[in-house]
Amino acid sequence: MNISQSNKEALKNPWVLAIILFVLTFVSMNAVFIYLAFQSPPSLVDKNFYENGENYEQIQKKIDQQKALGWTGLLIIPVKTRVNQLQTYEVLIQGKNSTALALDTVVIKAYRPSDAEADFSTEMVNTKPGTYQAELSFALPGTWDIVVEAVEGTNEFVMTKRVSISP
Q1: Within this chain, do residues 16 and 75 fall inside the same structural domain, yes or no?
Q2: Which pLDDT score, from 0 to 100, does residue 74 have?
Q3: Would the pLDDT of 129 be above 60?
Q4: How many domains does the chain have?
Q5: What SS3 class is residue 112?
Q6: Residue 65's domain spans which residues?
């Protein structure tokens, strides 16, 4: 019997290979789920979840239409956000070829995944071409999902960002 760290016999055992394959599958599936969690819209509590679930195909069409628009957006948030502190949130939305857009409405919504009663929204003000601002104050600390909805005619652009509010 050859017992040594350099012995390669263990890698020929089907049980060892099965365990290694299981661990690799487990880690790769976790990586896939983490990727999907960051790429999908926030999973918020919705009072009409059944109706919205039935509208999944229309939601996917809206996402495809948004991608076809070629618009890009950048949400500029304060570095340190605290409870009950009025701070400026700014969004820069550009069309194809980085052209500034004159949008009909831009609304910023704040959702607290753990407490739907604390959710709020406000309309953003156009400060210069393609740039919109709003003053926000969060009443509760914790994790919030910021959703910016920009509308120009029938075109709609949605951006999301998760922020943490300090006490």
Answers
A1: no
A2: 92
A3: yes
A4: 2
A5: coil
A6: 49-165
